[in-house]
Protein 1
Amino acid sequence: MTLEEISARIKTCAQQMDARYGGSVFDEWAVVSLAENKARVLFYTGPRNDEFLQNFVHDLGPLRAELHNQKYGVGDFEFSRHGVGTRIEAFLVIGNGLYLFCNHTQTTMDAIAKNPRWLDAQVPFVELADAIRADSLAVSWDTKVFKKS
């Protein structure tokens, strides 16, 4: 899968999740490369375009330890129920050293999950994970960094 393809799928996933949820599930979506111990934002949509990378390490919070866990393969994901504010609530492995980070900057995953529509809203996210598992993201390092869409 190319960066353009995954960006389009992310936008579609976000729209579908929000429609099923009846509001915004995640207001921030970012494709980040962590290859060579250097964070590079390849795609971002959300309210913190300029601040996202500056605060990235802090905002990973409890998910930071999970990123180093070898049990996650392409298409696997993890949620943090206790992220507050800009703390990232979820990641999805989308390729070798490539991740999709999802966050809602105004609420917590715990609050999102209390809405009974949350279970149905997860379906497009799982479908995205399955699509990525079948065709992961591959990028070359001459790929330009994409900004807010």
Protein 2
Amino acid sequence: MSDVVRDTVVPLYLQIVQDLKGKIDREELKANSRIPTEAELSKAYGVSRITIRKALELLVDEDILVRKQRIGTFVSSKKISRSLNSFMGFTKSCELSGKKARTQFLSAALVKALPSDIQRLKLEEDDKVIHIRRLRFCDDVPVILEENKFPKQYAYLLAEDLNGSLHGILNKHGVVLASGSKTIGVCHATREEARLLNIKENDALILSKDIAYDAEGHPVYAGKEIVNADRYVYKILTNNAVKYI
């Protein structure tokens, strides 16, 4: 470990924070790896365990480190960030993070609309929907299990290559997404979801449900995403125009 400088105005714990950040950036401490214990770090830096604990708490607050009960402290996996302030698909969010997106097509079929589909997509009682299921990867790591349902006029999707960007296919057919709504909650992995996302059954996941509309206000699709929260985050930007009630 690096020596800390004692004759400076920079507190010791902040020097340790910067040193550990540097080691993580240089991948001397790799993502998901366990870092030394507080006692080991205290000896390596020549400081008290209280100073080490303060540095680690700051890194945990910044999501750079994560504590796992009875196991230790680990370097967080680098998460992809998607802005909720605009329509940004998974492929684009990966590109902006300097990563490569990949899609595994699971299934696509024309099926009878469920009552929830009729309500969300403003359909008639006996309408059918295009149901598409895909698994989304970032740098070959499974991140999102995605389901989208489209009204039957989008049946042309069944003839498209669904291993790429759905937004790109829609744009090619002149469909522009103009608005939408998203609801975010928490769920726990089923056996199938755990298998597909390479996690443990009952692990906590992000559950995202959304509806996208075209310029005329017609629903284009109703979507559901089961998201591995260890790999992916949603970001919301606010400004002074936001009113709190």
Protein 3
Amino acid sequence: MNQIKSTHSFKDMWLQFKEKHPGLVEFVMFFIISNAVTILQMILMPLLKYIFGFTALVTTQFQQFPVGQNLDGSIYYVFDYAAGAIGAGGGGGLAYFLAVEITLLIAQIINFFLQRNVTFKSNSGIAKAAVWYFIAWILISIGASALQGLYKVPIYEFMMNTFGTISGTAVADVITMLINSAVSFWVFFPIMKLIFKKEEGKQENTK
């Protein structure tokens, strides 16, 4: 009996808090779901990278959109995935690029529906929201890839020198995915606030 009362009491407290601080509750739910999706990415990206490593994709260069130079004078690419395995001094090639982008695509599809239906409880049109979300994802992916050019090589080199090629690469995979996820987290929240609207007097559309 006391347990039932305690459960009701906690539920009432939560509903009162939610009513007084709706923005904070949204952010907390966004944070929880984003972290769950991040864990998925940390597992999926190294797995895909490992699988693609057995194909010719790893020796296929993918360096696109030059935008200036690195400190050593080499060309700085927005998408910089030189041919060859990272452990052998390469950039991961097309295998690394696809592992990252496929992981992000799967993660963002899951994130889209969870954030829309659970966090923001949006009842606005799903098609329009999906289009804007996709556009945002493309722009964020480009920005995150360009940023990766600053930290990818130093992180992998440091981790491989510290823990060895295999373990160091695995640790670096997780760290780079975490950084990528962190960038998406802070950029996506205000975007979702705009596209996942809740229209008064309209029934929630969860389909």
Protein 4
Amino acid sequence: MAAMSLKTLETGLGYSFSQAGLLTQALTHRSYSIDNNERIEFLGDSILNCVVGAMLYERFPELREGQLSRMRANLVNQQPLYEIARDLDLGTYLRLGEGELKSGGAERPSILADGLESLIGAVYLDGGFEAAQAVVGKLLGSRIDQVDPGTHGKDAKTLLQEWLQSRRHGLPSYELLATSGQAHAQTFRVACRVDVLKLVTEGSGASRKAAEQAAAQAAYSKLSMT
């Protein structure tokens, strides 16, 4: 792994490691070595939840615990972490076993999301909590800025359903339109239909669930503006 390429990754994180071995371990999947990133991932997951929780707590003092919990869950689940990891081009830095490489593990959403958590854990071990907090802020700050407190952290499918029910409309239906890519890294395209309003929207994602959420968000955005 070229030092220059790791510097590019560090630039994306906004953090330079003092202990290069920690960065290497954070990028090592269990398929590659017994000295892998699983324990660091565990640590990173805890830190991520803590920091995002604190950011939401400070930003939305009027919201209750359940609302904050839903917001946090939507921000730190696999899909957004995968998207952030993909933006960092994290798959090119991961050390994977031959089998995982051949099966496209470097593009698999679960592996990329886990790898991002490992990096956060490694930053904590290398530079302490404040350093990890700064990295999380850099990576997720814009997403937190876009959170709508009026939705109380509800996901798009729930918001769409509640909007329709409040107007005594029927529930939306979801249809899988297509899948593309290899089995290990598929992209799903889904349609959301609201027949009574003759509305059809589409969404895509790394899982069918994520694609349904994207389609529901498109439908809710259109309807809530009317």
